[in-house]
Design goal:
The complex is a heterodimer of chains A (223) and B (491).
Chain A lengths: L8 H19 L6 H26 L2 H25 L15 H19 L15 H16 L3 H22 L5 H29 L13
Chain B lengths: L1 H21 L3 H24 L6 E3 L4 E3 L1 H24 L10 H17 L6 H19 L5 H36 L7 H7 L5 H19 L7 H8 L2 H30 L1 H24 L4 H22 L2 H32 L10 H4 L1 H14 L6 H15 L3 H26 L7 H7 L5 H19 L3 H14 L4
Antiparallel strand pairs in B: 1-2
Helix pairs in contact in B: 1-2, 1-4, 2-3, 2-4, 3-4, 3-10, 3-13, 3-19, 3-20, 4-5, 5-6, 5-10, 6-8, 6-9, 8-10, 8-11, 9-10, 9-12, 10-11, 10-12, 10-13, 11-12, 11-17, 12-13, 12-16, 12-17, 13-15, 13-16, 13-19, 13-20, 15-17, 15-19, 16-17, 16-19
The chains are: A mainly alpha (223), B mainly alpha (491).
């Protein structure tokens, strides 16, 4: 009979962070207000940063610890505040019209999570501290991010969806490739900054032109 | 070699910085032309002077140049150079409609920098950053006409492109994870490291990693069904930007796919990589050929033609064997020149007629003979009519298909290339040859003298696609043969 896997305190904390990250990803599907969506993203990012720090401490890897702190600084503070300040205050309406209503969104989100875990279980991979299948939670966030982007006709929501998706990829990177050279991890994170700046520029252009961040009218180009 | 790579990359960076300082003054344009021409010259020195066929690292393991890099580097550097020349003329008052002139040159040069860096970066993680950088700068260039349509196109591009690239990054991470059992927890994921370890990588992770990379970077290539951004961005951006997107960006993203594919096929065998390329390439060719038949927006038509050509290259690699792979790599170069010519012609036409609707354009050959001639020659070049280079590359791919006993694939390629030919040529023929009337006021605009720099850029593109149709210089021939061995069957 195979021995039962050994779970210590660190594994338990990692499992709790994974669950909370997944729940904060799903919570995105519940909120209609732009500000709340940005806040939900910040919470998700906090768990991503926390997980990175935990892996770094567990492996006694200074690079991962620095990456965790940097992640917290950029994704939990700088990006949410800049999105919030730069764009959402420019427009009067803050509630995003939904293509798919909340109950159905949540149902689809849970289904996507199941699909992600089922797909991830086929891969022979062990994640740093994460319960098996290691890629289940990150892939769930990727799919939820995609779904969120598709069903929210608003520039800010689409940015949040994109960043959620990116968070999923980031957690996957820390989980299955924690030894990825620090310089690359740092570069990837650094790359996010100009990207967000450019998203912001776009969002401002759209908001300035249409006095709204809704993209419902952006459907001229077809065929 | 490192010095030449640094020169090649430093020139566009310096031109971008100068553009920030000088703004939209003419000096920005001239500095950009000098930088782009210098980068092209440096690329030629790197590829042919340092014998890229052998494959070697530079600056430690920061850069890597082999035949595969060489093919894409030449294509990208050429397009950047002619686009810079064309843009100087296009930005003159009364010609091109570019509202965000202040940022045009810095963004164009940063775009050039990222494109030039992509084929020479050795580290797969940094390669991803480079491709991602192309998205953020080129998306703003797409919007630089300042219209509602261009804003919509730019937004779709940045959102779809970034989402796709996130999947591409996941693909690279999976490739990295596949190497952990044999290379250890901490290693630098350079191409050569992974290729040498390829037989020992985890097969199922490599398969999944390549699939993610293909879908992710394939989004930037414009492969169907991830192509939704491409027709909009190519048609709504200023024409020189469209040329850069079509001739260089798609190639650079395809390079990333092939680089990862070259690793994957050494681990799991070529059939898996080829099968995926055949599926996505075939779908792209099929859909683009039919969409080409129903377009009335001539720039949008050229965008669908780009999807078709990326499908052809993917099919060429997917067919396998040295002949088809050689043809596919040759296609990358001639498509870059041919499509640049076509978009330059379209830009010239747009500046005269001020419409993208082909139904409102008639008799170009009489009203603006040079533009008409360039448009028509561009259409003939990109539809693979002899003696243009694209005819030769497509013939090589079809021949490769027959030599591999893949008759059905070769047959389908011939059929859909001809469907696309009908779509593209009939529309351009109608615009250029069919008789049309113009009012006296319109006639003055249409008869505007040809802008010399725009003409030079068009003639340079025409010369490349024409000369390569009848003669392939032996260093290039050797490079293409060597590139075919990097990803072809002969591994």
């Amino acid at each position: 009979m195979p021995a039962a896997p050994h779970y210590d305190f660190v594994h338990a904390v990692a499992a709790i962070i994974a669950i909370l990250a997944l729940l904060s990803g799903l919570s995105l599907l519940l909120v209609k207000q732009v500000h709340e969506q940005v806040r939900a993203y910040a919470v998700l990012s906090a768990f991503a940063a926390g997980y990175t720090l935990l892996v770094g401490i567990n492996r006694v890897d200074a690079a991962l610890i620095v990456l965790g702190v940097w992640t917290a600084l950029i994704k939990v503070i700088v990006i949410p505040i800049s999105i919030d300040r730069a764009v959402t205050r420019q427009v009067s309406e803050h509630e995003v019209p939904l293509v798919v209503q909340v109950p159905m969104s949540l149902l689809i989100g849970v289904t996507l999570t199941g699909l992600a875990y089922w797909s991830a279980s086929a891969l022979p991979i062990h994640g740093a501290l994460l319960p098996s299948p290691a890629l289940g939670m990150p892939l769930s966030l990727v799919l939820i991010g995609f779904f969120f982007m598709i069903t929210r006709q608003n520039v800010i929501s689409q940015i949040v969806g994109l960043l959620t998706l990116e968070n999923g990829v980031f957690i996957a990177t820390v989980a299955i490739a924690p030894g990825l050279p620090f310089a690359i991890g740092f570069l990837l994170l650094l790359d996010l900054l100009p990207a967000v700046v450019f998203y912001g520029v776009f969002a401002r252009l759209i908001a300035a032109r249409a006095k709204t961040t809704s993209i419902e009218d952006m459907s001229v180009l077809r065929g | 070699m490192a010095v030449w790579i640094l020169i090649m990359l430093a020139l566009p960076l310096a031109a971008a910085a100068a553009g920030v300082v000088a703004g939209d003054r003419p000096v920005s344009g001239w500095l950009s032309v000098a930088a782009a021409a210098g980068s092209f010259a440096a690329a030629l020195v790197l590829v042919f002077g340092f014998d890229a066929v052998r494959g070697r690292h530079a600056l430690g393991t920061a850069f890597y140049l082999d035949a595969l890099s060489g093919v894409f580097l030449i294509a990208v550097a050429f397009v950047y150079a002619v686009v810079a020349i064309y843009s100087v003329g296009y930005l003159l008052p009364g010609i091109g409609h570019v509202r965000l002139r202040r940022w045009y040159w810095p963004l164009l040069n940063l775009f050039g920098l990222a494109l030039l860096a992509t084929p020479v970066i050795a580290n797969l993680g940094v390669l991803w950053v480079s491709v991602e950088l192309t998205t953020v700068v080129s998306a703003l260039l797409v919007t630089s006409e300042g219209t509602d349509e261009s804003l919509e196109a730019g937004w779709k591009y940045i959102v779809i492109g970034s989402a796709g690239l996130a999947l591409g990054l996941l693909g690279i991470v999976l490739m990295y994870a596949a190497g952990i059992p044999s290379l250890g927890d901490h290693y630098t994921p350079t191409y050569t490291t992974l290729v040498h370890a390829a037989p020992h990588l985890n097969g199922s992770l490599v398969r999944t990693g390549f699939a993610f990379a293909l879908v992710g970077f394939g989004t930037k290539v414009g492969l169907v069904p991830m192509h939704a951004w491409l027709p909009d961005a190519h048609s709504e951006g200023p024409s020189p930007v469209s040329a850069m997107l079509s001739g260089a960006l798609l190639a650079a993203a395809l390079y990333a796919v092939l680089r990862i594919g070259a690793i994957a096929q050494r681990t799991v065998g070529p059939s898996y990589v080829h099968a995926l390329l055949l599926v996505f390439g075939g779908l792209s060719l099929l859909l683009a050929a039919f969409f080409a038949l129903r377009q009335s927006n001539y720039k949008r038509l050229l965008a669908y033609s780009s999807i078709e050509h990326m499908g052809i290259v993917s099919l060429g690699i997917g067919i396998g064997g040295p002949i088809a792979a050689y043809g596919a790599f040759f296609h990358v170069i001639v498509h870059a020149a041919g499509k640049t010519l076509a978009f330059f012609g379209a830009g010239d036409l747009l500046s005269r007629y001020e419409t993208r609707d082909a139904d409102e354009v008639r008799g170009v050959i009489r009203l603006a003979p040079f533009t008409g001639a360039m448009m028509l020659l561009g259409a003939l070049a990109i539809t693979g009519v002899p003696p243009f280079g694209i005819f030769r590359s497509e013939l090589l791919i079809v021949t490769g298909g027959f030599s591999q006993s893949k008759y059905a694939l070769a047959g389908l390629l011939v059929v859909f290339v001809n469907v696309a030919f009908v779509g593209v040529y009939q529309l351009f023929h109608r615009m250029v040859i069919s008789p049309g009337e113009a009012t006296a006021r319109d006639r003055a605009r249409l008869n505007r003298p040809e802008q010399p720099l725009m003409a030079v850029a068009m003639l340079a593109s025409l010369a490349v696609v024409l000369v390569l149709g009848v003669w392939i210089p032996s260093p290039l021939n050797r490079l293409l043969h060597a590139a075919a061995t990097v990803i072809g069957d002969s591994v």
